[in-house]
Every structure is written in C-alpha cells, then in structure tokens.
Automatic annotation (TrEMBL), chain A:
Protein name listed in UniProt: Sulfite dehydrogenase
Top-level taxonomic group: Bacteria
MF (Gene Ontology): heme binding; molybdenum ion binding; molybdopterin cofactor binding; sulfite dehydrogenase activity; sulfite oxidase activity
Oxidoreductase molybdopterin-binding domain ranges (all copies): 105-264
One GO biological process term: sulfur compound metabolic process
EC number: 1.8.2.1
Keywords of the record: Metal-binding, Molybdenum, Oxidoreductase
Name of a matching Pfam family: Mo-co_dimer
UniProt keyword Hydrolase, yes or no: no
Cofactor(s) of this protein: Mo-molybdopterin
UniProtKB/TrEMBL annotation, chain B:
Keywords, alphabetical: Heme, Iron, Metal-binding
Keyword Protein transport assigned: no
Descriptive protein name: C-type cytochrome
MF annotations from Gene Ontology: electron transfer activity; heme binding; metal ion binding
Amino acid sequence: MTKKRIQLEQITGRLSRRAMLGGAATAVVALVQTASGKTIQQGVSISELLPDDPTKQIGTLAGEVGTRSAFEKVVKKPSDISSRSPLQDFYGIITPSDLHFERHHAGVPAIDPAKHELLIHGLVDKPLVFTVEDLKRFPSVSRIAFLECSGNFRSGKETMSPQDICGLTSQSEWTGVKLSTLFREAGVKSNATWFLAEGSDAAVMTRSIPVKKGWDDAIVAYAQNGEALRPEQGYPVRLFLPGWEGNTSVKWLRRIELSDQPFMTREETSKYTEPIKGAEPVRRSDGPGKYRQFSFDIDARSIITFPAYPKTVEKGWIEIRGIAWSGRGKVARVEVSTDAGKSWQLATLQEPILDKAHTAFRYVWNWNGVETEILSRVTDETGYLQPTLNQLFAARGDTISYHFNPITAWRIKSDGSVLFKPEP
Amino acid sequence: MNLYSLWLPGAFLLVMLTSRFQTIGEDRRTSPIAKVDTLPTHFGFGRPATAAEIARLDIDVRPDGKGLPAGEGQVLTGKQIFAAKCAACHGTGGVDGPNGSLVTTTNPGRKRPEKTIGNYWPYATTVFDYIRRAMPFSQPGSLTNDEVYHLTAYLLQANGIIDEKTVINAQTLPRVVMPAQKLFVPDDRKGGSEIK
C-alpha cells in the first residue's frame, strides 16, 4: 500500500498539467495494482492522494527531477506562432525556464547537440567551425537580462491579463561565450560592419546585426538558469543580445557571416519594421508613410502584475506589484498612480536593479473601496519616461505596431474586480 | 603524545599559513589573478572551415546580388508553380490567402492597404532569399534555384514591378528597384526624453 501511494504521488507533479486541463475530478492517471496483482491505469483525484494530515504519513521519496505542485496552475498561453509567459503568476524577476515565452517562425527544431556546429565566416581571417563542446571550452560569461519580443503589445478588451497584454517578455540568467571572444578567434576584419546570424530551424531565421553589438555585449549562449537552453529557447546554442528586440537573439544558431553591409532579410524589412511620423502625419487614410528599420533597442516599459485581471481585491491594504525594464540600461525609477494618473508616487524598487533587466517594484496602498484606476510608469537611466498610448500614436501614427510600450492602466471596480483599461 | 609536543609545530604552521594568506591578499590587491590582457587572442578551439562546407551553408543573398546562384526565372512558369505550391496559403494570384496577401490590390473595403511585396518590401533580393530559405511553409527548402527564380519573377510581375517578358537571374534581380525602398528610414531613437 505504501509503495503504491509513493508511486502515485511521484507522478502527481509530472502529470499535473494534464490533470489541470482535464479538470479537478481527475488529478492524475496513475498505475495502480489491482487485488489480483494486475497493473492498470486509473484516474485518481487530488483529494484521494492527499492525506488528511501530512504529518501522519511519510512523504514522497527523493526523486531525480523536481516537480511543480499540482495545486499551481501556472501555464503559458500558446497561439500558432507564440506562447505567452504568465506574468501575473510570477514572483521575483527570474522566469522559470519552462514558462519563458516562445516565439518562432517555423516551430521548435529537434537538434542533436553532438551534431550541431556553429560556422563563422565572411570578413574574417580564419573561417572556423565550432562544436557545442568547443564553445563551452572558451571563457564563459553569465548575465541576468530580459528578452522581449518587439511585437509585445495586445489591447482591445477589458478582460485581458498581463500575460495577454505583454506576455512576450521573460527573464533568465544566460550563460555562454562572449561573441567578441569568437570574433577574436576568427579574426574579424576591420571593414566588417554587420554580421548575419542564422538559425537552424525550418525558417532558417536570419537577422543582420551591427558588428559593434557583437564586440559590446553579445553572448553565444548555451545555458539558461543553470542548465542547458530549453529547445524553445534555442537549444543547443543561441545568440543573446541584451536589451535588443527578441527576434535578433537568433535561436538554434548555426552560422555567423561577417559583412560590410546588412543583408536585408525578410525579418528586417517586411517584418519588425514600424510606421513612424514622416514628413507628413501618418494616418490610416494616408496609406504608407515612413517606416523605421533596424529598431533594435527595447524602449523602457513597466506593468503592474498585481492587482490585475483576472484577480480580485478587497478593500484595505494592497501591495501593488509589477516589473519594469529598459533595453537602454537600468531602471531609474518607477512611479505608481492610484487615482487614474492625477498624481504619482515613487514605488520601491527591489534589488538587484540590473542593466537591461526586469526589475521588480512595489507600492503599498490602502484602498478605500471606491472605484479607481491604478497605473505605473518607468523612467530609465537615459531619462526616457514610459509614454501613454496616445503619445505613441502621436509619434507614430494610429497603428499599433512593433515597439509599443504604453502605460497600462487597471480599473479597480468597487466590487473588487480588476479590469484592463485599454486606452488610458 | 601530550599537548605541548603539538604546540611548537602547530605555532610554526599557523605562522606559515598566516603569512601565506597575507601574500595572496597582497597579490590580489596589486595584481589580479586573471588579467584580461593575459588572455590569449586565440585559444585554438574549433577547426578551420572548408570552402565546401561554407558553400553548403552560405545561402544568403544581399541586395547587391552577392549570393545569388546560377539559373533564371520566367514569369509564366512562376505563375504555374505558384498555383501548385503557394496559392493554398497565399491565395489565388497571391491575394487574400489565409497567410496574407503577397500581391498589392486596390481593395476599397479595407481600412488600410495590406502590406505586400509590391508596397512594403524594400529589396527584390529578399524575395529570392526568403522563398529559398523558408518556403513552402510545409516543405521548407524543397524548391530548386530555378523554381525560386521563377516564383520571384512571377511575384514581381504580379505586383506590377516588372513586365511579363523580364527574365530574373543573378544579374537582373539586384537591379530591380522596389517601390517601398524610399519609405524606409534607419532607427534614430536615442533614449532620453523624446518619444519617437
């Protein structure tokens, strides 16, 4: 009997997602021995697995891999092309690797690390090929930084969570070899001004990157949060460009070609370019205006992740929590408004406040129960203040496109429900 | 053995260890253990790439035509290939497919013109590069270079950029000027107080 119980509990976590999707009735599908000694599969509810008193029963034995509690319903939200991080369910600033957002252009490739190689060629003295093991022999570097898709803004209805609005941002500790180390190894020529980064997925995704970024702080990463990269994040090797739009951090990296000009790939011409104010004001009726290209830096942004839809609150003390970040450096300050933007108070920033990294903020507020709106806005160390949606429309025309980072407002209704306010 | 017999060697060891630690401490202050300038320029890891393996992977095409292979494409042949291999996702004639239009139309019912090759792609070489590396979506990398040239010719003609008789190859494609090229400007955001 004890043996059976251990077997059941050990798979509780492993099958928790399936259990959650199947509803509360069946917690797990477990292997159970019948009275006649036959092993069968059987659905078991969470309550059947839970002892009345956990202090009166020996717990699960040590396992090979930890599991998330079956009570924690924390999942990404996938579409055909991406999957969004549940920002409202996170604590602190590190995104659990299995909840890091996904965005790919032709699925997640299956790659044998023993067969994967990185070629560096073009304007170099010595074209070189590195195996994954070769890359791991070089001096390594780690840094904690966010990675955000530049198409990370959705709006349009009140019943949207932080995950729905901007779940295409996540943060990890990335470990790998500096690209500058590989540049020196191959002998990048002085006339090289751009390099092409190419992935080994079915889209053979490519971006042109200024060589300067490669010398500055680019990492060829093979690890994330203490273990090898997840396949969704580029296993076995990816480019990581701190502070830059996520698409440039090419995953499943197989080739780097040095050049004296950009390659003008599809992802830097017909995609990842956005309308801006040209000589004439940009309006829908005007048709095409000017379009900005190679918009690498992620503009500073913040969002309150609690309280936020779909959670509800009660009158009294509430700790407003959120994250703020900038692709241009550190977060200088975050301000919170609890009166629909009429006045702003400084939020407390949680250490560490890192360069180009999600930074946690909080502001303790005593809610009197009267309907109001709460908002946050970040200022980064360059002095950039997070804009309103209307300021973005004024600068770029009234089309929501890449690099939209507006102040996000939450309406707190008197019944304690919290709704997204699409246009503050 | 009593405690006194341990005292002398013990004290000696203590003095030695203390002075050793002091020496290391001084070294740390005056000279870092791993100075950056002592790292070699070359570690000697990896192996030289052969010309053959570079050629196998080097599929990119630049706006100046560097990287375009031998071969050529005709508009009418491209039209047939498009109908067979592309229209299911991109629509008959490259219009209104489930995965977006590729060809510009004047559709007054739309709020704004759909972004297509004709009105939004700044370089013709990108059409060849992208089709060859990623299309058709369900069979990526399955087209021959000639098929890619045919499709490129057809899509440029359907968008009104070249005529039906123009042959597309490594010489002619880079010379095609796209209507959208003049619309693109480089990023000039610099941080600070300005919202751009």
